[in-house]
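Hi all, long-time lurker, first post. I run a small reading group and we've been trying to get comfortable going from sequence to structure in the token notation. Rather than ask abstract questions, I figured I'd post a concrete chain and ask someone more experienced to write out its structure so we can walk through it together at our next meeting. Sequence below, copied exactly:
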Amino acid sequence: MNKRWNILSGNDEKEKALNQSLKINTTLNKILVQRGIDDFEKSKAFFRPQLNDLHDPFLMKDMQKAVDRIIAAINKNEKILIFGDYDVDGTTSVACMYQFICKIHTPHLIDFYIPHRYREGYGISKAGIDFAATHDFSLIIALDCGIKSVDLISYAKGLGIDFIICDHHLPDIILPPAVAILNPKQTDCHYPFKDLCGCGVGFKLITALAKHFKINESVYFNYLELVATAIAADIVPMIGENRILAYYGIHQINNNPSAGIKSLIQLSGIKGKLTITNVVYVIAPRVNAAGRMDDAKKAVQLFIASDPTKALEFAEMLHSDNSDRKEADSSITDEALALLAKDPLSIDKKTTVVFNEHWHKGVVGIVASRLTEKYYRPTVVLTLHEGIVSGSARSVMGYNLYEAIDACKEYLLAYGGHFAAAGLSMLPENVEAFANKFEEVVAASIPNHLLIPEIIIDSSISFSELTMPLYNIICQMEPFGPGNMRPVFVATNLIDTGYSKILKELHIRFVVKQNNIRFTGIGFNMADKFQLLASKQPIDIVFTLDENSWNGETTLQLKVIDIRLTSI
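-- Answer (accepted) --
Happy to help. Here is the structure in token form:
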């Protein structure tokens, strides 16, 4: 599939001013300015993040109310239930809060609750509230959920159960009747940083409580590895407080991990230093797999385990769940691709909708992402569970998926989500009508260029600039994520040396040169592009800079993203 190349423009005036302060490579100088890092102080804060630059938690609306309610619960020996969602953000949030509340309250008066994905669904559940009522819990601290649970929190209030909500999802106009709502996205919340994940909001409550109880910051900084894991998995912007928290959390993972994180790393087979990318693609899937395939409670049990042997037992359960998840994901993706291959009309559609009543509900979201990568169009994957068809939807960059699904609501029982992803359910007899309507809505509203994947390129660069000092500065720009992605470059007028080759019929090992400077590179799943190299015509390559170690020698290499003939 051809891709659109979007090379970002620069700002000569700001770049010149910054260069006078930093004296670094002009290309990196340009990239920093593009990211809003345009003076010395901003550069210092970016390259040397400091924990003392975190904002005062009491700047968040309702923080004092939340702290006061927890103090009252402790003084009255009330039972406190820590409630969180079944994904990485939810389970890390619960693990952090549970461990901390156990330090300031009587442990046997505290418990945690993770709703079962299939029996209870996302967020606050009636079953969870009934559990609290049956076991005499009078305060629930909800993490990574609750902001939209108006009716259920009203139900809990009627049972004499108070709620403190720590959430980061966009609030509706009507808010739940909780005693405190911590969510920086509230329009009347003046907290300076709006992009915390659920675990991040929970961490701010912990820091506020620690201030009140005069607990040393080293105690709650121990939770930074979990906060970093949530930030990575939830794909929140890697800027501001998120960058600071992730920076120090990754440092902890690499230098002093908890028994649970250490066990996950051991089972994953990772050697050497972990990056945020390892967390996203290695640690997070194992944690998410617990909720997808079974019960996410064991993810919390892993995170709070202090005994290495016990932690390894829980890690092995998650590892096994992830193996099952990968098998289901792979087989369902293959089945979905086969269904589409049998449909001659699918090639001309602007959407993909596939349904099989036997598919595992826990992986349809992943399959939707795989199909979107393959065909690059808004995609819905559906399955049948207890007589109801439900599934997940994924969008392409720049297209509002939620609005498209909202336009099809006449065929739906329920739906929810945001710009890029959504969940939905319907009666089996409405699947075909929904698919037709969804195609009609998307076809009428999506610009054609959004159906072509876009590669954002930070800057063009020459091979003469690709040096180890440049790479070392790029490494100091970590952790990478939305708002601070790993720099992507384009090099033009390259010539194949004749040593490039296809590996395992899938990948390309590039050996190319520019003005007699030669670089090797790897292009995964790019074998279909090899004919461009074989043509011996000048080519342009989009890539990130990487490191390759072989036989004790470390060299720079290109991690190739795309390739095309140089335009004349």
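A couple of things your group might point at:
The chain has a mean pLDDT of 94.
The chain has three domains: 57-319, 343-451, 455-565.
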